[in-house]
Design brief:
By secondary structure, this protein is mainly beta. It folds into 4 domains: 24-152, Immunoglobulin-like, CATH 2.60.40; 158-264, Sandwich (Immunoglobulin-like), CATH 2.60.40.10; 270-365, Immunoglobulins (Immunoglobulin-like, Sandwich), CATH 2.60.40; 370-488, Immunoglobulin-like (Sandwich), CATH 2.60.40. Helices cover 11% and strands 52% of the residues. It has helices at 2-19, 490-497, 502-532; strands spanning 24-25, 32-39, 55-63, 67-75, 84-86, 99-104, 110-118, 125-137, 140-152, 158-166, 171-172, 181-189, 195-202, 208-209, 213-220, 225-234, 241-251, 254-264, 270-278, 282-283, 289-297, 303-311, 315-317, 322-327, 330-340, 345-353, 356-365, 370-376, 386-394, 400-408, 413-415, 430-436, 441-450, 457-468, 476-486. The longest helix is centred in the last third of the chain and has 31 residues, at 502-532. It is elongated and about 190 Å long. It comes from Thermoplasma volcanium (strain ATCC 51530 / DSM 4299 / JCM 9571 / NBRC 15438 / GSS1). The chain crosses the membrane at residues 502-524. This is TVG0507890 protein.
C-alpha cells in the first residue's frame, strides 16, 4: 500500500511538470480576434475568382491579452483542402508565411499577408479558413486557431465584343483576294475581376487563311474591351457573307473556346475625278508638261493591285505608272510628265485606272515661229566695223516675251568695242528684246572686226534665240545657222594673181605653147605667099 501512494505522488508530479512547458488553449476565452479579411490590401473591396494566382490574402487580428514570443500564420489547409493553396515564392515546398513577434500588446491590430492560389474548380461562395497564433501569456504557453470566412465572389468571362478587318483607327470592309491585312478582334471582360495573362491562339478558317498565331494579353480589366490584331489573307474565290472563326483562350487556369463572326462585304469603285495640265495651255514640241489627275475610290474597302498609268499616240509619256497594292477608300492624286509632239489640234490621252480606261482630250496649240533672215556688209581681212544684220520676225499668233539673242561666231571675228567702253565686249554678243507681238520684226545688228589673218571664204555663224509666253515658264528657243562671207582685199587679189603654183605654171606653159605655135604657123604661111609672087 505504501508503494502505491508513492507511485501516485510521482505520477502527479510528472503531470504537473509537463503542464508547465506544453502550450495550452486559453480556456474558453479566446486570446486573439480576427477583425478583418480582404484581398490585395487592408479593407480592400476587390474580389478574386477561381483560377487566380499569386493573390494576397490579408487578415487582420487583435490580441485580447498581452502576448510575448508570438508566432502567427494563416492556415488555408485546416478546413477546406484544395480551395486555397500556398504560393511557392522562394523555391521551397509551398507553405504558410510565418510571422514572429517578440511582444504584442492587447488591443493593437496586427496584419498578416499570405500569397495564395485559388483553385480553378472552386465555386463562388464563402470558405472557412483559420488563423493560427501561439505565444506566452503570463509566461504560460498558449495557442489558438481562430476561424474566419474568405470570400471567393469574383468571376471572369472573356467574350468577343466585335471583329473587323483593319485596325481600330483604320477599319475596312473585307473582300476576296486581300493579302496580309490586319484582322482586329475586340475581347471584352464581362466579369468583375482583372483577368491577367490571357493566352490567345487563332487558326484562320474557311475563306480566311494564314498561319497559326499566338499572343498573350497581360490584363483585361473588368467591363473593358482590349483589341487583339492578327494578320490574315482572304481567298480569291471567296464570296461575300458571314464566316465563323474561333479563338482558343486560356485564363485563370482553364481553357475556353470563343467564336466570332467575320463579314466579307467589301467592294471598291474607282473613278477619275479631275485632271489638269501645267501649263494649262499646251503647245507643240513642249517639254515636261505636268498632267495631274485625281482618283476616287468610292467603295468601302481597299482596291487591290491597282495599276495607274497613261498612254497616248500623240504625246511622249515620260513617267512610269503606279502600282498600288492596296488603294483605300478616298481621294488620291497622281502626277505624270509628258512631251507634246509636232502635231497640233485636239489630241487624246488615255488614263488607265485598274481595269478602267478614262480618255481625256486636250487641244495642242501651234507654237508661234520665230523667223530669222540674215544679210551683211562686205567683210575683209583687217577691216573693222563691218555689220551683220539679223531680222527677227514673230510669225506666230502670240506675243513673245524676253527674247534673248546670242551670237556665236568664229575666232576671226570679234565684236567691235569702242575704246571708251572696253567692258562692252563682255555682253556685246547678247541682245535682249522685251517683246515681239505677232507680225512684228526687230533688226538685230552686230558690228564686228575682222582679223587681218583671215582668209577669204565662208565661215559658219550661229544665232541662238530664246523666249517664253505669258502663260508658261517654259523656255522656247530657236537656233539659226548661216555663214559669214569674207571677201579678199585688192592686195590679196593682186597677190593671188601673181602667185605661181603648179596650176598657174601649167596654164602659162600652155599659153606660151599656143602663142609660139601661132607665131610659127603665121611665119610659114607668110613665106609661102612671098614665093608665089
Amino acid at each position: 500500500m505504501r508503494y502505491k501512494y508513492i507511485s501516485i505522488i510521482l505520477l502527479a508530479a510528472v503531470l504537473l511538470a509537463s503542464s508547465s512547458v506544453m502550450p495550452v488553449s486559453y480556456g474558453s476565452t479566446p486570446i486573439v480576434e480576427v477583425s478583418g479579411v480582404s484581398w490585395y490590401t487592408v479593407n480592400s473591396s476587390e474580389v478574386v475568382a477561381p483560377g487566380m494566382t499569386f493573390v494576397p490574402l490579408v487578415v487582420t487580428f487583435v490580441p485580447l491579452a498581452n502576448l510575448s514570443s508570438v508566432t502567427a500564420f494563416i492556415n488555408v489547409t485546416k478546413y477546406n483542402q484544395g480551395i486555397l493553396s500556398y504560393v511557392n515564392t522562394y523555391g521551397y515546398n509551398p507553405g504558410p508565411t510565418e510571422y514572429n513577434f517578440s511582444y504584442l500588446p492587447a488591443g493593437k491590430p496586427v496584419t498578416l499577408v499570405q500569397m495564395v492560389n485559388v483553385n480553378p474548380n472552386a465555386s463562388d461562395g464563402l470558405y472557412r479558413e483559420a488563423l493560427y497564433v501561439s505565444g506566452l501569456y503570463s509566461s504560460i504557453p498558449v495557442f489558438e486557431n481562430v476561424s474566419f470566412s474568405v470570400p471567393i465572389l469574383g468571376k471572369s468571362s472573356i467574350l468577343v465584343l466585335n471583329s473587323f478587318f483593319g485596325t481600330q483607327s483604320n477599319p475596312m470592309a473585307g473582300r476576296s483576294g486581300m493579302r496580309f491585312v490586319p484582322l482586329t478582334v475586340m475581347l471584352e471582360n464581362n466579369g468583375n475581376v482583372y483577368t491577367q495573362n490571357v493566352s490567345i491562339s487563332y487558326v484562320p478558317q474557311g475563306p480566311i487563311y494564314g498561319y497559326t498565331q499566338n499572343t498573350t494579353l497581360a490584363v483585361i480589366p473588368p467591363g473593358e474591351a482590349v483589341p487583339v490584331t492578327f494578320i490574315v489573307s482572304v481567298k480569291n474565290n471567296a464570296t461575300n457573307g458571314v464566316f465563323v472563326q474561333n479563338l482558343s483562350l486560356r485564363y485563370l487556369g482553364a481553357y475556353h473556346n470563343v467564336s466570332f463572326n467575320l463579314q466579307l462585304d467589301g467592294y471598291s469603285e474607282l473613278s477619275l475625278t479631275y485632271y489638269f495640265f501645267d501649263p494649262p495651255i499646251v503647245y507643240t514640241n513642249e517639254k515636261f508638261i505636268s498632267l495631274k489627275i485625281g482618283i476616287q475610290n468610292s467603295g468601302n474597302t481597299y482596291a487591290k493591285n491597282t495599276s495607274i498609268f497613261i498612254t497616248s499616240s500623240d504625246f511622249t509619256v515620260l513617267s512610269h505608272g503606279y502600282n498600288v497594292s492596296y488603294l483605300p477608300s478616298g481621294q488620291f492624286n497622281f502626277t505624270f510628265l509628258i512631251n507634246s509632239g509636232s502635231m497640233y489640234g485636239t489630241q487624246e490621252i488615255d488614263i488607265h485606272i485598274g481595269s478602267g480606261v478614262f480618255p481625256i482630250l486636250i487641244y495642242v496649240h501651234r507654237v508661234g515661229e520665230l523667223f530669222v533672215s540674215y544679210s551683211q556688209t562686205t567683210l575683209q581681212p583687217g577691216v573693222d566695223k563691218s555689220s551683220l544684220y539679223f531680222n527677227i520676225t514673230n510669225e506666230g499668233n502670240r506675243t513673245m516675251y524676253d527674247i534673248n539673242v546670242h551670237l556665236l561666231y568664229p575666232a576671226i571675228l570679234t565684236i567691235h568695242t569702242p575704246s571708251s567702253n572696253p567692258l562692252l565686249a563682255l555682253t556685246a554678243n547678247n541682245i535682249t528684246i522685251a517683246r515681239l507681238v505677232p507680225g512684228q520684226s526687230f533688226l538685230v545688228v552686230f558690228v564686228v572686226d575682222t582679223s587681218s589673218a583671215a582668209h577669204s571664204g565662208q565661215y559658219p555663224i550661229q544665232l541662238y534665240a530664246s523666249w517664253h509666253y505669258n502663260n508658261t515658264n517654259y523656255l522656247f528657243f530657236k537656233v539659226y545657222d548661216t555663214s559669214v562671207r569674207i571677201s579678199p582685199t585688192v592686195e590679196q587679189q593682186l597677190s593671188d594673181f601673181f602667185t605661181f603654183n603648179y596650176v598657174t605654171v601649167a596654164v602659162l606653159a600652155v599659153i606660151v605653147v599656143v602663142v609660139v605655135g601661132i607665131a610659127v604657123y603665121a611665119g610659114v604661111k607668110s613665106r609661102k605667099g612671098n614665093k608665089g609672087r
